[in-house]
From TrEMBL:
Pfam families, per the entry: MtN3_slv
Transmembrane segments: 12-35, 47-65, 71-94, 106-128, 134-160
Domain of life: Eukaryota
Protein name: Uncharacterized protein
Organism: Salvia splendens
GO cellular component: endomembrane system; membrane
């Protein structure tokens, strides 16, 4: 039992969290394969990918900058940033002009306005370790939004009774498991 001390458990669950997060980043791959094959965005929404890009690229990398020794956060969010940027590029490439402008506005709003406001408040109002705590809570809320964003599309699908249960049950399972891991286990970077 001494093998499973708090430090080792934090590393194990941190690695499991990174693996689950990587799989979540890859979850839209069939959708983008379909978009590339048909050379059309086919009415898919860009909001889930915009929020995920904001979470991975800006907010969590800023959080990792504020923390010390945040290697796991930087590694998975760096990979996620590249994957989400590719998704958004492909979406914009095959979307109609009106949808492309809508997507670009969301990206500018999240990455420019949202991150700018969070940085401004955290740098001017909050100091010391409370800054990391504030940004950490904002990251947690945004992560919940990342998992909730596909549910907005799911609601539309329910209205039209086009539900692919395996895909959405997988999304809910991943959201529940990562949220539980984040709550129950302290991150490796706090050691």
């Amino acid at each position: 039992m001494a093998f499973f001390n708090a430090d080792r458990l934090a590393i194990i669950f941190g690695l499991l969290g990174n693996i689950i997060s990587f799989l979540v980043f890859l979850a839209p791959l069939p959708t983008f394969y379909r978009i590339c094959r048909k050379k059309s965005s086919e009415g898919f929404q860009s909001i889930p990918y915009s929020i995920s890009f904001f979470s991975a690229s800006s907010l969590l990398l800023y959080y990792a900058y504020l923390k010390t020794n945040a290697y796991m956060i930087v590694s998975i969010n760096g990979i996620g940033c590249v994957i989400e940027a590719l998704y958004i590029f492909l979406y914009i490439l095959y979307a109609p002009k009106k949808v492309t402008l809508f997507t670009m506005r969301w990206i500018l709003l999240f990455n420019g306005g949202g991150l700018g406001m969070i940085m401004l408040v955290s740098l001017l109002v909050v100091h010391g370790s409370k800054r990391v705590t504030l940004v950490g809570w904002v990251c947690a809320i945004i992560n919940i939004d990342v998992f909730a964003a596909p549910l907005s599309v799911w609601y539309i699908n329910v209205l039209f009774q086009i539900i692919f249960f395996s895909r959405y049950s997988h999304q809910l399972l991943v959201a529940a498991s990562t949220s539980t891991l984040k709550i129950l286990v302290r991150s490796y970077e706090t050691i």
